[in-house]
Amino acid sequence: MATANALIARLETAEPQFRTPPSNIEAEQALLGAILVNNDAYYRVSDFLEAGHFIEDLHRRIYEVATSLIKAGKVATPITMKTFLGDQDLGGITVSQYLARLAAEATTVINAEDYGRTIYDLAVRRNLINIGEDMVNVAFDAPVETSPRDQIEEAERRLYALAETGRYDGGFQRFSDALTAAIEAVGEVNGHVDTRNGQPPPGTESRSMVRLGARYTFGSWRADGAMLFGLTDSDPGFGVAAGFTYVFKAFEIP
Length: 254
Hints:
With 254 residues, this protein is of the alpha+beta class. The protein has two domains: 147 residues, DNAb Helicase, Chain A, CATH 1.10.860; 56 residues. The strands form two sheets. Strands 3-4-5-6 form a four-stranded antiparallel β-sheet, with no helix packed on it. The chain has a two-stranded antiparallel ribbon with strand order 1-2.
């Protein structure tokens, strides 16, 4: 009995230990500072990093504004960004002063991708924690109409979405976006009609072709495949075409 009483006393006097979600504020600050100093650092992480991966609300907002400015062909600096972020007090320091400090303490853009991957990995871990907590809570207090099989399938769906849509090579996408950005059907009819009298010169005769196929798009890559059907005597009766396209942004017209 004495042992039991001692254990109870220890439980009553022990302070609860709360675990905080994994994060790295220093990595977020280092990356944002690198972007403010050299906007080229943004392109090292833009393929996979989103504002939602930052744990600090202010850092999310800074990244969102920087993304909008850079994509619009403008420069993202502490001076250009303070207009969009306001200048509220952050506990002894204003937003403008915080941006200036981020830029002043930035080291190099070489490590920008490593900082971005650290931020991204920690965001994925936080998502895993949320999924695990939801699984536990639902298992403890599941609705009557929800079977264990339904709970397993929901957990599998969320884990699959996290695994398939959050990769370095293809960028992080919402699950709904990943589904709609998969395969699309493509159909077109093209050609030209020669309205002149007599025998047309070679290459100018009436021609027309139907193209039916599919297109798969993922990130900047696009794969096309189609069947071709000729509609005139000058066209082949049937053919097949396929190819790959890499889309990149060379310039932007405002």
